[in-house]
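Intended use. Records like the one below are meant for learning the mapping from a protein sequence to its folded structure. Do not use them to infer anything beyond what is encoded.
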Amino acid sequence: MSTTKKVAGAVLAAALGVTTLSACGDGGQDEAGDGASGAPKSKTVTLVTHDSFNVTDTVLKEFEQQSGYTVKVLKSGDAGAALNQEILTKGSPRGDVFFGVDNTLLSRALDNGVFTPYEAKGLAGVKPEYVLDKQHRVTPVDSGDICVNYDKAYFADKKIAPPQTLDDLVKPEYKNLLVTENAATSSPGLGFLLATVGKYGEEGWKDYWSKLKANGVEVVDGWEQAYNERFSGSAGGKKAKADRPLVVSYASSPPVEVMYGEPQPAEAPTGVATGTCFRQVEFAGLLKGAKNEEGGKALIDFMIGKKFQEDMPLQMFVNPVVTDAALPELFTKHGVVVEKPETMAPETIAKNRDQWVKTWSSLVVK
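Structure written out for the chain above:
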């Protein structure tokens, strides 16, 4: 989930100042060598990832104890920035595994050849719709949905039904209520743009945004400003006396509001317009030229194992991709299931993204 991407709710938690890093390692390889015949094998496996990565310490220690490897986590900004560094150092990577490339960036990573194919143990348990690379250069790890969130109290007080679809957002009753992020600078903003392209097609999405602009949509640079400063339903927005009851955020945002509410509310103060969503999928890949290929493979296997998959929701506020992983009660009670999110092939995104963003900017921002 990064800031050209966000990580599903992990960015939400980080913005509230509550996420901490759980990782082990001594900051370097324990032993030299790449695992080739006759060379000593490294006992450190390095995971390069975005700033929103998190895992429970005991879960990571269990992997270390079972595998014999020590995990070093190298956080490198948002996913886009981290990927750029791996492209620049292709063949001489900073680590063994990269986690955090999503479907909006995937073709760029694959076209630049930064990953070595590896079919992970346990891949058969991953939902087939998430396996987007048939060469197995990357392995799906989590999914999340970018969606419009609404302030329940505002709509209850005004006796207006909250919007549920993209079509609803251009109706007069929702004029001057929505804030979204800039598609050129923010992953949620880009995801929301892609949702409209998926829904209305190449011929219709520009007309839709013209209507949305006429209906008073506000555009800000990034998620934190939109959610914590302009959205009236969030804890941060309430403190800031925000006046926009609709915001582009994540389907996992309501559980975050409950988990970190002070006092913790019995019900989420925000809801999700499930007809406005775009599905993101995050992947892990074995970096080409990794010093510890065997350790990297073991780590990827672990990341699609049940233990890690069931730990993710409350650590990064994303959804498991394996069929046998259960969601925590916080998600089942306060979250939503998005049945029909907009999706798009990574190749289509890669081919059109820059032009779509350029056209969007001229229509909405300038």
